TrEMBL record, chain A:
It comes from the Bacteria. Keywords: Flavoprotein, FMN, Monooxygenase, Oxidoreductase. Pfam families: Bac_luciferase. Transmembrane segments: none annotated. This is FMN-dependent oxidoreductase (Nitrilotriacetate monooxygenase family). The keyword Hydrolase does not apply. The keyword Oxidoreductase applies. One of its GO terms (molecular function) is oxidoreductase activity, acting on paired donors, with incorporation or reduction of molecular oxygen. FMN binds at T96, Y150, S202. Residues 26-380 form the Luciferase-like domain. Belongs to the NtaA/SnaA/DszA monooxygenase family. NCBIfam families: FMN_nitrolo (TIGR03860). The lineage of its organism: Bacteria, Bacillati, Actinomycetota, Actinomycetes, Pseudonocardiales. CDD domains: Nitrilotriacetate_monoxgenase (cd01095).
Automatic annotation (TrEMBL), chain B:
It comes from the Bacteria. This is Alkanesulfonate monooxygenase SsuD/methylene tetrahydromethanopterin reductase-like flavin-dependent oxidoreductase (Luciferase family). Keywords: Flavoprotein, FMN, Monooxygenase, Oxidoreductase. The keyword Zinc does not apply. Residues 25-273 form the Luciferase-like domain. It holds the Pfam family Bac_luciferase. It comes from Actinomycetospora corticicola. FMN binds at D48, T76. Belongs to the NtaA/SnaA/DszA monooxygenase family. One of its GO terms (molecular function) is oxidoreductase activity, acting on paired donors, with incorporation or reduction of molecular oxygen.
Length: 438, 367
């Protein structure tokens, strides 16, 4: 009997965003190590492939002031991942490391160190920085024009791989961005290369992932869109000499459970209202309208006037700083119209529209329903698994681990023990070959 | 006053012919740090540098944090090639992980080979003074970032939907000749408020760096610095104090003397071991080298205490041999003589050093 396609699960400890419900009495510290220990050990108990942490390099601002409505403040991600290696033994440790405000030698050495000190469990989510705003915290400032940032990211990754492949030997690398020479201080780490993750939906992002990544994070957690994305990205692999299974496609999703479908739906509704307070609803609308909306009633209709474009704003730029998601409002006038039409059609308030437009994909239902849905999604090639994001930290993953994981195991589509000792093995990826051998 | 016993960890030992070991394995480092903790050491330092073979010392400290309980963890930070913003959050994270046991040793690099690994600065156009000034700025930025969140900035006020009180978060707006940093930090103020900054100093430039930015200074009594012999314990202490007086520093730094040690049951065995290893590769050391018995070393350190040093940072010549001797034989002897502690009396590195948590420089300041 052929084995069913296996589901890969990752756990994201969310940093700064409105989806983390800090006002719930069950919400713990997001900075003390105990929270990270709990979260990591819970995900490992659930046999997850890895846990993931995003990166923060500047506190967000809105209207010229520090944004104060969400959980904010977090540890350095690679550092806290390394500490979690001490209290876990199998789970992978994945962190975002920006390519714009780091140097390849330092990044490659840190990730190789994480790989050694965790026994082969390191992963790197390679990203670019999106604005000069973040650059104000770094020596080199906002020095890199936008069009060069992807180039730097690609070169950073290429250079890091070359450094890892030196096996602690000499290198002499000259690219558009880097002129570096010497001896790489770390021998080849247990995984050869830490697992490479890429996020992003754009054409460049898809190509970058197909060429270079071991896993890709996506927002496509709807089945049809997921299947299309999956087919597209997997279809690009062959052109880069890679196999179908060499790249794992992992959408982000959250979940809300209940003993009955009705109870789960009610729980989900409550969570959504906790995530989008009246103040958060106004803040999100301001990000589209690009102006102060403090006089707007969040429980009233979507504003009837149009947003300001960035050119209108006297001070220049956008009211919201340091928030990548604002980029999705490329046409704010059209977005505002869409929100207004949705509100009118459904009879929804501004807050209800924000809830509908900004929610992460959520699996809602009984544990059986959620297990069935996830399995169907993966078996239908809409994804290879999910990056799950609980709305409570640090205990939010526990109900999934205790109630859903055993059902996935019963279906034969989820492991009952870790297959390997490295993350690469657990993700079912081929061992890394040195460049000289490939 | 407790005389502080600190241990400096470097590879498999400070003698270049120390037998090889699994320096790439977490257990190698964890067991050494646990051994130092067994000896009630105040802190361990971890050597580092980008041009030397080995793992990142900040990550080694983080790996050891959850599996140790009292010893201070002091990795090395090369100010010349790192971002102060990144370093400040890394050290703050170490402090959160260890509930207040983090420190760092700030290091300046003038090594052209190290600069070539980064390829973004030209060492031939830089002066030593300039590099030390840059390191001073680096620490200043880190310290301001640690203070940029007041301790009670997180309010979780459900009534107003505010997670933080933004009046308790502060831009640091540092502008120096090497870089500018806006702030605030992404990481809330660490448990110690300010983790412990340390520096090794054996020349005047380094004494000035120490005076400007270190809580704790390592000197090399009877050693050899860049400018020649460093002088005895009292002389090195005076070097630190006069640099402090020059800038009008109010609170003096604590000063620990460095010493490479070969410890054996009799003095001849220790010096024979040194000679034998030197036959393979010669030990060249900035710090004085001691070869002898536990009793002799304890007596020497009593002399340092009498000269006014606050402690000693011992560098085991061969980690697998000399570190257990330090932890299991020397430490109890020092305690028996009333020099060092008999049990950990505090849970934080600041507490062990008798230093209070500093006030936040921005508390009450309007942004």
């Amino acid at each position: 009997m052929t084995q069913k396609k296996q589901i890969h699960l990752a756990a994201h400890f969310p940093g700064v965003n409105n989806t983390t419900v800090w006002s719930d009495p069950a919400s713990g510290s997001h900075i003390e190590f105990e929270s990270f220990r709990h979260f990591a050990q819970s995900a490992e108990r659930g046999l997850f492939d890895f846990l993931f942490l995003a990166e923060g390099l500047r506190l967000r601002e809105q209207g010229g002031k520090i944004y104060d409505l969400d959980v904010m403040g977090r540890p350095d991600n690679v550092s806290i991942l390394q500490a979690m290696a001490a209290v876990t033994s199998h789970i992978g440790l994945a962190g975002t490391v920006n390519s714009t405000f780091n140097e390849p030698l330092d990044v490659a050495r840190k990730l190789a160190s994480l790989d050694f000190l965790s026994g082969g469990r390191a992963a790197w989510n390679v990203v670019t920085s999106w604005d000069e705003f973040t650059g104000e915290n770094f020596r080199r400032g906002g020095y890199l024009p936008k069009e060069k940032r992807y180039l730097r990211a690609q070169e950073m990754l290429d250079v890091a791989k070359q450094l890892w492949d030196t096996d602690g030997g000499e290198f002499d690398i000259h690219t558009d961005q880097f002129d570096i020479t010497g001896r790489f201080p770390v021998p080849r780490s247990p995984q050869g290369h830490p697992v490479i993750i890429q996020a992003g939906d754009s054409e460049e992002g898809r190509e970058f992932a197909a060429a270079s990544a071991d896993a890709i994070f996506t927002r496509h957690a709807e089945k049809q869109a997921g299947m299309e994305f999956y087919a597209d990205v997997k279809g690009r692999l062959a052109a880069h000499g890679r196999r179908h299974e060499d790249l794992k496609i992992l959408p982000a999703a959250t979940f809300v459970l209940g003993d009955t479908e009705d109870e789960a739906a009610e729980n989900a509704r409550q969570v959504q209202y906790q995530q989008v307070s009246p103040a958060t609803a106004i803040a999100f609308a301001e990000q589209v309208w690009n102006r102060d909306l403090s006089d707007v009633d969040p429980d009233g209709p979507v504003p009837s006037f149009d947003p300001k474009t960035e050119d209108d704003v006297d001070s220049g730029g956008h009211i919201s700083k340091g928030r990548a998601s604002v980029r999705q409002y490329r046409d704010p006038v059209a977005t505002a119209r869409e929100w207004r039409e949705l509100g009118e059609a459904k009879g929804w308030s501004l807050r209800e529209v924000v809830i509908a437009k900004n929610g992460r994909h959520t699996f809602v239902g009984t544990p059986q329903r959620v297990a069935d849905t996830i399995d169907d999604f993966v078996q239908s090639n809409a994804s290879d698994g999910f990056v799950l994001v609980p709305h409570i930290t640090p205990g939010g993953m526990d109900p999934f681990v205790d109630q859903v994981v055993p059902l996935l195991q019963e279906k034969g589509s989820f492991r009952t023990s870790y297959e390997g000792t490295t993350l690469r093995e657990n993700l079912g990826l081929a061992p890394v070959r040195a460049l000289s051998q490939s | 006053m407790t005389f502080h016993l600190a241990v400096a960890l470097k590879d498999t030992g400070w003698h270049p012919a120390a037998p090889p070991g699994d320096v790439l394995e977490p257990d190698f480092w964890v067991s050494q740090i646990q051994e130092a903790e067994r000896g009630l050491a105040t802190l361990v330092t971890l050597e580092d540098g980008f041009a030397r073979r080995g793992l990142d010392s900040v990550l080694i400290a983080l790996r050891a944090g959850p599996v140790t309980s009292h010893v201070g963890l002091v990795p090395t930070v090369v100010a010349t090639h790192t971002e102060p913003f990144h370093v400040s959050t890394q050290i703050a994270t170490l402090d959160w992980v260890t509930a207040g046991r983090a420190g760092e040793r700030i290091k300046v690099s003038a090594d052209p080979a190290e600069a070539a690994l980064f390829g973004r600065r030209d060492p031939s156009s830089e002066t030593r003074e300039g590099l030390f000034d840059e390191a001073i700025d680096h620490v200043e930025v880190q310290r301001r970032l640690w203070d940029s969140w007041e301790d009670d900035a997180e309010i979780r006020d459900a009534a107003t939907n505010r997670f933080v009180d933004r009046d308790k978060l502060h831009y640091i707006d540092f502008v120096g000749s090497h870089f500018a940093v806006r702030g605030p930090s992404i990481t809330p103020r660490p448990p110690q408020g300010q983790p412990i900054v340390t520096a090794l100093a054996h020349v005047d430039t380094a004494y000035r760096l120490a005076a400007r930015c270190a809580d704790l200074v390592f000197t090399t009594p009877d050693g050899v610095g860049r400018d020649g012999p460093t002088g005895d314990a009292a002389t090195t202490l005076r070097g630190v104090r006069s640099a402090e007086a020059e800038i009008g520093r109010a609170e003096p730094a604590q000063v620990l003397g460095d010493l490479v040690v070969f410890l054996d049951d009799d003095a001849t065995a220790a010096s024979t071991r040194w000679t034998r290893l030197d036959g393979e590769r010669t030990l060249r050391s900035d710090a004085d080298v001691f070869a002898g018995t536990v009793d002799q070393l304890a007596t020497k350190l009593e002399g340092w205490a009498a000269a006014g040093l606050d402690g000693a940072r011992l560098r085991p010549a061969v980690a697998e041999h000399d570190l257990p001797r330090i932890a299991r034989d020397l430490a109890p002897e020092l305690a028996r003589r009333g020099l060092t502690r008999t049990a950990y009396e505090a849970d934080t590195l600041r507490g062990l050093l008798g230093l209070a948590k500093p006030a936040d420089r921005y508390a009450g300041v309007q942004s």
